[in-house]
Amino acid sequence: MQIREKDLSASALLKLAREAVSAGVAAGTAGVLVNDRLDVAIAAGARGVHLGGSSFAAGEVTRWRGVGRAPADFLVGVSCHSVEDVRVAEKDGASYVFFGPVFDTPSKRSFGLPQGLQRLREACRAVKIPVVAIGGVNEKNAAECMKAGAAGIAAIRMFQDALNVESLRTAISRIHAIALD
Fold first, then answer.
1. Are both 2 and 74 inside the same structural domain?
2. CA distance 81 to 161
3. Per-residue model confidence as pLDDT tens digits over 59-105
4. Per annotation, catalytic residue among 4, 125, 140, 174
5. Domain final residue pick, 23, 54, 80
6. 81 within 8 A of 54, measured Cβ to Cβ
């Protein structure tokens, strides 16, 4: 789970993050990531932090693992918009990257033109860390992202537009089956 709240005060975000971490532990999930706020992620006991373009550099954040201020297995994710960004993130110690936008989407137009599947493929081949495809990913093109080498997808509208949980499960199963072909 990733907490992307940008409009909450630090104290409200910390409360939300602690509740999410607690709920995640109870449910046996892989953990909670907090966007941009290293302080909140550490204080809440989150699994890691995800860094956007205006966040600290990944190298600054990953140093916290080395000095004992964050757990050694604390995840640091980075949003990247070029193959070079992906390489730099890995060099700086990022655990994974989000790469995109792969396809056109209104929420990512400020980050430039869509990168496309070929650049996604190049990004995936350029590094050893997981690359997650983001930006315009939907039920129809998600499997192509996986075939290009993406370790996973990040999609907001696909999940928001799902008619119900069962239709979402069916779509995810279909994407998984296509990706494995």
1. yes
2. 25
3. 888 887 766 677 778 999 999 999 999 999 999 999 999 999 999 98
4. 4
5. 80
6. no
Is 108 among the residues known to form the active site? Answer: yes
Options 47, 79, 119, 121, the catalytic residue: 79
Q: Both 127 and 69 in a single domain?
A: no
Is residue 8 located within the same domain as residue 44? yes
- Residue 49 token pair: 């932090």
- Among residues 35, 52, 80, the one where a domain terminates is 80
Q: Measured between alpha carbons, how far is 141 from 88 in angstroms, rounded to an integer?
A: 27
| Closest CA relative to residue 158, chosen from 147, 146, 170, 150 | 170
Q: How far is CA 177 from CA 10, 38, 135, 161, 173, in A?
A: 41, 36, 21, 21, 6
Catalytic residue among 65, 108, 119, 121: 108
Return d(Cα 170, Cα 11) in angstroms, integer.
38
